[in-house]
Amino acid sequence: MPKKRDGGGLSKTQQAAKFLGVSVLAGAVLAGIALPAAGALGLAAKGSVEGFDEIPATLKTPPLSQRTTILDANGGEIAKVYSRDRTVVDLKDMSPYIQQAIVAIEDARFYHHGAIDVKGILRALNKNAQSGGVSEGASTLTQQYVKNVFIEEAGNDPDKVAQATQQTIGRKVKELKYAIQIEKELGKRKILQNYLNITFFGQQAYGIEAAAQRYFSKHAKDLNLDESALLAGIVQSPSRYDPVSAPQEATRRRNTVLQRMADLKDITQAQADAAARKPIKLAVSRPKNGCITATNGAGFFCDYIRKVFLGDRAFGKTRKDRLKRWDRGGMTIRTTLDPQTQKAIQASIGDHVYADDPVATAATIVEPGTGKILGMGQSRPYGFGANQTVINLSVDHNMGGGAGYQPGSTFKPVVAAAALEQGTSPEQQYSSPYQMPYPSPVQTCNGEWHGTPADTTQNENRKEVGPYGMKEATAKSVNTYFVQLISDMGICPAVKMAQKMGIERADGKPLQQVPSMTLGVQEMSPLTMAAGYAAFANGGEYCSPVAIESITDARGRAMKVPRTSCRSAMSKKTSDTINTLLKGVVEDGTGKEAGLKGRDSAGKTGTSDNRYAAWFVGYTPNAAGAVWVGDPQHKRKMYGITIGGVPHDKVYGADTPGPIWRDAMTGALAGRPAPALPTVPIGDPNKDKGRDQGDEGDKNPGRHKPGRGGDNKPGGGGWDIPGWPDILGGGNGGW
Fold this sequence. Notes:
Blueprint lengths: L11 H20 L36 E4 L5 E5 L14 H11 L11 H14 L9 H14 L3 H8 L3 H18 L1 H11 L9 H9 L8 H10 L12 H17 L5 H9 L21 H13 L7 H10 L3 E4 L3 H14 L7 E7 L6 E6 L33 H10 L13 E3 L4 E3 L2 E3 L6 E3 L11 H7 L2 H11 L1 H10 L25 H12 L3 E3 L4 E5 L5 E2 L6 E3 L3 H17 L13 E6 L5 E8 L2 E8 L8 E5 L2 E5 L6 H13 L66
């Protein structure tokens, strides 16, 4: 039986087993006992052969694993992914030459015998006995097809593959029984079609269409005579006859196939001779498999699609079922990725942060009202080389991301929304001193939080001294205002608002209920923040992120896909008020460098203590995006650092993430409608006090002194120290 897997041929042990198998099976056939009424070949007593009648009557033929194509929202290809590179085609889409060539070299009597070729077995038995080895096989094309079905069913399980290919009499008996069934049910043409679609041609190519593409960059229907003979010859030993690595061996094998075709009168001798004189001319297409080949920097989004598929019960009851379905492939997955948005994100990132910078950036844009992820990118490309990574810095840990990053002051609007929902006026004033202890006790969902005199926080700038109203405090990102706000309101409303907005920790743990949560001290992902802010743009309604629009299987049938889930997170009045507050940030506050020209936008800057992370999260009515800049390892403080060729004494949310967001959003929304954000009037009693813009707009802030946490550990938003993931007490992390 021809060998179908990589390798130079059969070992002596395999030859002996094969020789024995041919002999026993020949005797069995001649004796008439290889039929259902005859029993078990007389060897079952030793457990070496399963009883013929005990073998299940029907061969289970799993759908062949094929390529899955992942498309963007416009139908453009992002990537192809597969466990086996295969494209199933009909016999009419295969060159007549390849059909003749494979029959000629593998089973010349294919159209003249049944499932078992008795004459072929006798011939092989005689020839092998004379040679003392295995110089000729006896399996029919139908038996070979059955063996390949066993291999396909084994998938990528090495133990099952070994069982499917083991040289035993028991496996040969199974092949025989199922071959009889297959011949009866399918007929010769269908068997030939199935065989040419399932068999392995080397170079990661399964099936004749993939082989034609791999070696000649053409379709199987366009193969000429010498190309067909070459591919037919590979099947016996894909590594030995590989035309890429062993062209001389491949040429000899091709010519053997051509001569065999001439002997069988499939072609004339003159045709065979002419084709044999031709040198092999390959047009190799290297396999492009997986998210590493994705276009426009969409490798991380591509990988996110896989994570969504493997994690959603819509695609199978268990993860094992879903993984098996993914590996089987053959799907066309249309995603939500907008090519214009994706290109804009990657262009902006490339302009502002380099792959070999000491820190990285990640950006994600979603569509308010639908939850569609429109773009996702980062500065370190998808891959395993230098300055590359396969960690998706935009998403939560369970979706292929890291531990997340402290969002700093970008969390403050969540607290403001919670307060507004509780009835707090946007004109509410607090004393907002430069420095203060955390008020204690503070109500949580589970009781009271109690602090100590050491639990203090302060503003970025010593000039930031209240009283402030909510609008000015938001524009300047005044820490002490928001600490007083959450302490007055209680922590539980802020926790519940975050939950309604889909804002959660990247590590999947519950939000820690401490007053410093208002300063953004708990690690989150850009996708989480972008989707949460989209609720402000969408009249207070939050829609969960989605990445898949539709899926069709190999037969073109639509599959069920997960849909976004939308819910009201706050009243429209509250979201309109937040719009007013956050428009002030980009118009006359810390985020002026991020403001968009010619369209309404709103957003918030944020940095963590010690500058481990800097953020800008913002939105328009039709897009919401989040940009993070920092060290994924939480080790590099962003002081005295050069990013994208620009030196920084300190990195602020306004001066690095802000411009990235601005340029990405500008490109993403170019040529698209520019509706207005609904707002409400808010009085500002301090507008004439003439204070300097502090926080990130002030490049000479006062001395920075970390606070103390509720557990008397160093606290605040920037204590992103490996091994200390939950230091959530006081501090100054919200700038």
